Amino acid sequence: MASAELRKINRRIKSVKSTKKITRAMELIASSRIVKAQQRLNTSKNYSRILGEIIRELANSGSLPKPPDYSGKKNVTLVVITSDRGLAGAYNSNILKIAESRRNEYLADGAEVQVVTVGKKADGYFNYRSINPKSSFEGVTDEPKFENALSIMNPLVEEYNTGKTHHIEIIYTEYKSAITQRAVFEQLLPFENLNTEEEKTKGNYTFEPSAAEVLNEIIPNYTNAAIFTALLNSSTSEHASRMRAMKAATDNAEDLIKILSRQSNQARQAEITTEISEIVGGAEALAG
Questions:
Q1: 95 near 59, Cβ under 8 Å?
Q2: Contact 32, 255 (CB under 8 A)
Q3: Whole-number percent of the chain with pLDDT over 90
């Protein structure tokens, strides 16, 4: 009969093998979703890039409107994009660290800061710290749709146009490759940082009927495209992070199974040696 120690080790081996099956399945699911997410991201980047070029051309022509005047405290809105689920390594924690840092910086400057959360992890993080988000969105980070970007951004643009908020910033994870993702923040409104020497276009655009009228139409499209691209970046980064985390968990499970198997063999050998010693001792006693 197996000893208590041997039974305990064998139960652990069985448990680790079950966990390994789960992590391996999650790794395969995440890896299968990355390809589609990358394709959607590349398409969205091309669209956002063209809109960005037009916005920069408008900035160079002096057609961009001045930010709304405000008195008193500056109102800042931070849009924080995380995931709805965990098991993605440091994906969520990296975003939340930047969000907390940016929030503290604005508070130190005397601004009033409000947070819009996208994903359960961000919502839970701020609520746990008694920071009630202005609005929360869940169930959109796995496979974002453009309608999700509209529902997030349209109310914020309206608040910006009416002077209720003076600065909108998005905090998300930028997808570089399956190995590299980077948590970043980006100023969305106002467009102060677009008119730089490095980003000036060559004047290839002609605006009809006028730059101002084109601007009124394109700014909502640009902001919606920007938040949609951020959602796609975050979604692709989440799948990549989860794939790496689950691969690491699967590899660790394999290593642990090897260690436990050796321990099981050692315990079994010790048990057999003990049984043989008892048999030999009993035989000698009977012979004597």
A1: no
A2: no
A3: 49
Phi, psi (rounded to 5 degrees) for 37: -65, -40
| Per-residue tokens: 96 | 């939340």
Map out the domains of the chain as residue ranges.
27-243
* Residue 166, φ and ψ in degrees, nearest 5: -110, -10
How do residues 245-281 score in pLDDT, each as one tens digit?
999 999 999 999 999 999 988 888 888 887 788 787 7
Please state, in angstroms and rounded to a whole number, the distance separating the CA atoms of residues 43 and 230.
13
The shares of helix, strand and coil residues in the chain, as percent rounded to the nearest 5, are: 60, 10, 25
H/E run at residue 173: strand 167-175
**pTM for this entry:** 0.81
Which tens digit of pLDDT belongs to each residue from 108-117? 999 999 999 9
The CATH code of domain 27-243 reads 3.40.1380.10
Extract the residue ranges of the chain whose pLDDT is less than 70: 1-2, 59-71, 192-216, 288
- Say if CB 58 and CB 201 are below 8 A apart: no
Number of residues in the chain:
288
Beta pairing partners, 117: 80, 136
